[in-house]
Write a structure and sequence with these properties.
Elements: H1 4-7, H2 15-20, H3 23-29, H4 58-65, E1 78-84, E2 87-89, E3 93-95, H5 97-103, E4 108-115, H6 132-147, E5 154-161, H7 172-181, E6 185-189, H8 215-227, E7 230-233, H9 240-249, E8 255-257, H10 273-288, E9 293-297, H11 318-336, E10 341-343, H12 356-366, H13 372-386
Parallel strand pairs: 1-4, 4-5, 5-6, 6-7, 7-8, 8-9, 9-10
Antiparallel strand pairs: 2-3
Helix pairs in contact: 3-4, 6-7, 9-10, 10-11, 11-12
Length: 395
C-alpha cells in the first residue's frame, strides 16, 4: 500500500523506508513535466494498453497517464483546490508550482490551498520549529504566483502547515512562528491515521492509537482554537468516533476532514466493499452532526481505497471514476450539505492513478445535476470560506 502520508514523507525518512513502502512507482506520478501539456490533444486517446503497473519510472508513468486524455468539462467553472502538496526532494521527485499549473491547464483554477507534506523544513534550530520552514517555503511560492501577471492561479492562497500538537501548550510559540512566516497561514494538520491491521498501516507521524483523545494533544488543539486557526484531520474511517468526540469538545474550532474520512479498501476491508461502505457511512453521518466540521471530497484515487486504478493497463476515465466514487461523495453532500463540502485534488498523490483533468472531470460528472449555487460551493466557495481565502492574500 502507498498511502498519502508515506508518499509525501520522503524528505524525513531514509531511503530504505522510502523503497519499502513502494514509492518507486510514486516517483513517476509526481514527475515534473513541462512537456506534459495535453491542451492540443484530441478529446479521447486510447492507444494499445501497456501495463506499467508498480514499476513505472517517470517517463513510463507519464506515457501511461497519456493513454486517457480528456478535455475539461465546464472549463469556465471556478475551482479552489483545497488540498495539494508541493516539494522538491533531491534524488527522489519534485512537484512545484509549474507542475501544478501544467496539470491544471484548461481548468479555471482560481485559488489553491497547500497542505503540509514535510517539505522545506528548517535544517537547524529547535526541532519543534523546523516545520515552520515549510510555511516559509510556500510563502515564497505564493508570492511568486501573485507577482506573475501571466499566472492564472493564486497558488497557496492558504497554507496548512504542521506543528506537533503533542507539545500541548508548548505548541503556541510554533503556531505564532507560522503566523509570522506567512499572512496566508491558516491552520495545522497533524496526521493521526491509525489502524490495527498492518496491511493498512499508520500515518507518517507513526501516530499511536487514541491520539485524538490524548490530553496533551487536546491542549495543542486548544491553542489552535484560541488563535482562530483550523485543524485538518487525516485519519482513517475506523477513527470517525474519535474525530467526532474531538469536534464536540471544541465546537468553535474549524475542523476539515481530509479525504472523506480515510476510506480503507485494503487488509481486513479487501473484498468487502459493501460492508466497509456501510461502516464508513455510519461514522461519516455521525461526524456530519458537528456543524464545525467540513468534508473534503477526494482521496479515493489513493491505493489505500482499494480501487486499484494505479495497477491497470489503462488509467480510469472520468466516467469510470465518477461511477466508483459517487456513492461516497453524494452521501457526504447529503449529510454535510454543499456548504460544508469541497472537492479536492490531493495532487500529486492522486496522480499515481489519474491525471488532474480526469480527476476534476469525474467530480463534475458527479455534480452535474446540482444547481449553480451548489456547484459554486462544492468547487470553490466552501473551501474559500473554510480557509479564509482573500484575507491578506495580496500581502
Amino acid at each position: 500500500m502507498v498511502e498519502e502520508s508515506k508518499f509525501l514523507s520522503v524528505c524525513r525518512v531514509d531511503r530504505r523506508t522510502f523503497l519499502k513502502v513502494g514509492l518507486g512507482a510514486a516517483a513517476g506520478a509526481l514527475a515534473s513535466s513541462a512537456a506534459n501539456a495535453t491542451a492540443d490533444e484530441p478529446k479521447s486517446t486510447r492507444p494499445t494498453p501497456r501495463n506499467w503497473s508498480k514499476g513505472k519510472n517517470v517517463q513510463e508513468h507519464r506515457a501511461w497517464l497519456k493513454q486517457v486524455v480528456e478535455e475539461p468539462l465546464e472549463p469556465e467553472l471556478p475551482i479552489c483546490d483545497p488540498h495539494h502538496h508541493m516539494g522538491d526532494w533531491p534524488s527522489f521527485f519534485r512537484y512545484l508550482m509549474a507542475d501544478l499549473l501544467d496539470d491544471a491547464r484548461g481548468l479555471n483554477l482560481v485559488d489553491t490551498v497547500f497542505v503540509e507534506c514535510q517539505a522545506g523544513y528548517r535544517q537547524d534550530g529547535p526541532v519543534e520549529l523546523q516545520p515552520v520552514g515549510e510555511t516559509e517555503f510556500m510563502e515564497g511560492i505564493a508570492r511568486k504566483s501573485l507577482a506573475d501577471p501571466k499566472c492564472p492561479t493564486a497558488v497557496a492562497a492558504a497554507i496548512v502547515g504542521h506543528a506537533d500538537l503533542r507539545l500541548g501548550e508548548g505548541v503556541a510559540p510554533v503556531l505564532e512562528a507560522h503566523l509570522a512566516a506567512s499572512p496566508r497561514f491558516r491552520g495545522i494538520r497533524h496526521a493521526c491515521a491509525w489502524h490495527p491491521s498492518p496491511a493498512v498501516g499508520q500515518s507518517y507521524m507513526s501516530s499511536p492509537p487514541g491520539l485524538l483523545g490524548d490530553s496533551e494533544f487536546r491542549k495543542g488543539i486548544a491553542c489552535l482554537d484560541k488563535l482562530g486557526l483550523s485543524y485538518d484531520s487525516w485519519a482513517y474511517m475506523n477513527q470517525f468516533g474519535e474525530l467526532t468526540d474531538l469536534a464536540r469538545a471544541f465546537p468553535e474550532l474549524t475542523i476539515v476532514c481530509d479525504h472523506v474520512g480515510g476510506v480503507v479498501g485494503l487488509g481486513p476491508y479487501a473484498g468487502r466493499r459493501e460492508e466497509a461502505f456501510a461502516e464508513w457511512k455510519r461514522g461519516m453521518k455521525e461526524l456530519a452532526s458537528c456543524l464545525n466540521v467540513s468534508m473534503k471530497l477526494g482521496g479515493l484515487a489513493m491505493p489505500l481505497s482499494g480501487f486499484g486504478w494505479q495497477d491497470r493497463d489503462l488509467p480510469p476515465t472520468s466516467l469510470e471514476m465518477a461511477e466508483a466514487t459517487a456513492p461516497y461523495y453524494l452521501e457526504c453532500i447529503e449529510a454535510f450539505g454543499p456548504e460544508r463540502c469541497m472537492f479536492e485534488s490531493n495532487f500529486p498523490v492522486e496522480k499515481l492513478s489519474c491525471s488532474y483533468r480526469v480527476l476534476w472531470n469525474s467530480f463534475k460528472q458527479i455534480a452535474k445535476a446540482f444547481s449553480p449555487d451548489e456547484k459554486a460551493a462544492l468547487f470553490h466557495d466552501t473551501a474559500a470560506r473554510a480557509y479564509r481565502i482573500g484575507t491578506a492574500q495580496h500581502a
